[in-house]
Design brief:
By secondary structure, the chain is mostly beta strands. The chain has no helices and 13 strands. A hairpin with a 5-residue loop joins β5 and β6.
Length: 189
């Protein structure tokens, strides 16, 4: 269950930008609450030891974050993405290309968007790795900018199913956060 805390200009939704989603709010405020729950399924399509690997992923974002508090749009989104990567000893470069169908909150029409990312991970010692990724997304409406964010992360695998990740990020446009910090606990089946 994701927990989100946002502090900054009111009516800014991460990954989208300035949106008038709820009642009039102060110019700047902090909000906390349940974030959007995301379900994803990934299938490895190509996994060759001397070539690149390819995964296809489908995601459904359930709009569980409170739109009136600016924690999300309150709408569901669907996306499909392709990830390519190549393991070169302890170094793994990767790239993603995807398409997201955005649910539009009442009174607002959001565009569906293409997104891409590129980065790399480095295995420090099994099972701990560090990495960085640049995320790009086209703008979701005519009133906001494209998304551009850089994230640095550290990942630690507890076993073959459980993984911990901590990250920091910075954004380069008004549709991206100035700064972010977070953690993820994930389970693979």
């Amino acid at each position: 269950m994701p927990w989100t805390h946002i502090s900054g200009p009111a009516d800014v939704v991460q990954g989208i930008g300035l949106l008038r989603l709820g009642a009039s709010r102060p110019t700047r405020q902090s909000e906390s609450g349940l974030g959007d729950i995301v379900a994803a399924a990934t299938r490895n399509i190509l996994n060759e030891s001397n070539a690149v690997s390819l995964d296809l992923t489908g995601k459904i974002k359930c709009g569980t974050a409170n739109r009136n508090e600016g924690l999300g749009t309150g709408e569901n989104d669907d996306s499909l993405q392709a990830d390519v990567y190549k393991v070169i000893n302890d170094f793994t470069p990767f790239a993603t290309l995807g398409y997201r169908i955005l649910g539009s909150p009442p009174g607002l029409s959001l565009n569906n968007v293409w997104f891409a990312s590129g980065g790399a991970t480095y295995l420090i010692t099994a099972p701990t790795a560090v990495g960085a990724v640049l995320d790009l997304q086209e703008r979701s409406s005519d009133t906001v900018a494209n998304v551009s964010e850089l994230t640095a992360f550290i990942t630690h695998e507890l076993d073959r199913h459980w993984k911990l990740q901590g990250y920091v990020l910075t954004g380069f446009t008004t549709s991206s956060p100035d700064f972010g910090i977070g953690g993820i606990v994930s389970h693979a089946f």
